[in-house]
Design a protein that fits this description.
This protein is mainly alpha-helical. The chain has 23 helices and no strands. Helices cover 65% and strands 0% of the residues.
Amino acid sequence: MPPSVSTSSAQQRWSGWTELVAADVIDNGGRGLRGPLPLRTIALGAIGSLLLLAGSFGAAGVLVHDPILGSGPLSAMRYGHGKDLATAVVYLGFGLLVWAWVRLGRGVLARLVDSRGVLLATAAWLTPMLAAPPLFTRDVYSYLGQGLLALHGIDPYAVGPSTLTGPIPDNVHPTWQTTPAPYGPLFMGVAKGVILMAGDGMISSVIVMRLVLLCGLGMLIFALPGLVRHLGGRLPVALWLAAASPMTVVHLVGGPHNDMLMIGLLAVGTLLILDGKHAGGLALATMAMAIKATAGLALPFLVWVWASHLTGPRWQRFARAVVPALALFAVVFGACMALAKVGFGWLPALSAPGMIVNYLSTPTAVGQAAFGLASLFFDADYGAFVSAGRSLGSVVLVGILVWQWWQARDGGTEAVRRAAIVLFAGALLSPVVLPWYLTWGMALACALPWSPRALSYVVGASVALVLAYSPDGEQAMYNWPLMAVGICAAFLGALSLVRFDPLGFSPLFQRATQVEQHLPQ
């Protein structure tokens, strides 16, 4: 959840912060983090991204019939020891990327790296991802399959991609072959447009989809200076959190995921409403919901922001804001449905992701734990316990939404902060949680003030969530040895942001250097 503690006050509590930065600069030869462009750190992350790209051709969500790697010597990357080696390269690249991101974060918090440096790092780290096969997911093939259905005049909210034949449906993950699309009508139009532009060529379709979704990141970056101005954060920190994060590089772009387009529209819409351009802002926020329904959690809070800009008693202002807001919502959402030529089938299809059962979802984890305990005493029904946990989670989420909405009744930046809280709650209390869901709330929360300690939690969560899935898109969270390594890596990454040399290796290196100096020449 977004913090309420200012960065400046929090830094005063970290007595070793100056020493950390000084040590980092010394570790870089006095050059790596000095000035706005930390070139060594950027290069380190770029090497990590290039390794991710290289390993992805064998370990990621590769095509069933790959026209490039399907035959010849490179095909060995896709099987046996070749795939194991490619997987190791992916994890090595991810480790270097996280290392670079943490080092960049140190410079940002020490005010040694500015927004330009973070943007350069983002560009360098994202560029290799543009040509990579889908990393840690196969969802993009589902997007393309749903767009192909819509292009053929078949309702993607009624049937799954397996209704058609060809390379696109063949590459959709088996879980989603017969599953209707759970996305909004605007995204169905986007997916249809991608198929029109790229045809049925798999590689070209994935690249075009990635470039279209990348527009969402562009919108987010465009909105951040204004959001920071309103919400009181720092632009370099916001960019480091939202743009340069491994969650963005690996999941949102490397994936890619349509959440990137949703949060971009939501961020620009929120900024416009804060700036008093209510109609345009609400229209963009509605379009965000027409990409993915989750954005709708923020809309009631944006109405309070609109109302706070009007005059008169609170409920009179609210009525004068909510009536045009509802009318505008109906017009924009209806236009999205009409342009995409789809109906209201997306509403029942929203339950489709619930087929995934894993403990990343707090309600699901509660149900699983309760089942495990109950099964010690009687023959329990696993599905009933999971359903009960999820139902309880939905009740809690509604309670949080109502409470936060009421607390946001004064509007302004407080309403946006509470909207971010609800987006985080929506991700964590959803029946199913996928790692990139945590980017929903971060799109707004990144512009708030952050303490170093809170940022270290973000680092740890980002590392752990990426490693919860395998590079080929399958769940890895029940691979307990891998998860143990991932948790240790997450803990180390979190500590590294706020503590130089968290493993205490510096004294060893210093002693080795002293011994070497005393050896006879």
